[in-house]
């Protein structure tokens, strides 16, 4: 599964996106119309690695630089004339390839 997300802006004002790559399958319920929130993405400052929280699971990942940057291009047709505009630049990907770890909350003590 590959998802794009906005990260920052380049010097020319074009947004810089990153690819989120997850090894495996994410099953979500499509009960709502519109965008669906899959999980929360966090970065730890101490070792600068991304952490993805999906429901009751945590995935640790790593940030990788792409060999070839990519451009996200938007096609616009105005008065029969086709124009292409650069919507964003993709230079990095966040790779989550390890197995998810369960989040365990407070467990009641046995009596």
From TrEMBL:
Cellular component per GO, a single term: Ctf18 RFC-like complex
Keyword Cell cycle assigned: yes
Cellular localisation: Nucleus
Source organism superkingdom: Eukaryota
A Pfam match: Ctf8
InterPro entries cross-referenced by the UniProt entry: Ctf8
UniProt GO molecular function: DNA binding
Single GO biological process annotation from the record: DNA replication
Keywords: Cell cycle, DNA replication, DNA-binding, Nucleus
Family classification: Belongs to the CTF8 family.
The protein's name in its UniProt record: Chromosome transmission fidelity protein 8
Source species of the chain: Pieris macdunnoughi
């Amino acid at each position: 599964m590959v998802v794009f997300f906005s990260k920052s802006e380049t010097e020319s004002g074009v947004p810089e996106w990153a690819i989120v790559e997850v090894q495996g399958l994410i099953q979500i319920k499509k009960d709502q119309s519109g965008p669906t929130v899959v999980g929360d993405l966090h970065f730890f400052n101490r070792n600068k690695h991304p952490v993805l929280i999906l429901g009751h699971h945590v995935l640790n990942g790593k940030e990788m630089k792409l060999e070839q940057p990519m451009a996200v291009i938007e096609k616009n047709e105005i008065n029969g004339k086709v124009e292409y505009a650069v919507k964003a630049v993709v230079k990095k990907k966040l790779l989550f390839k390890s197995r998810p770890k369960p989040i365990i909350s407070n467990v009641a003590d046995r009596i």
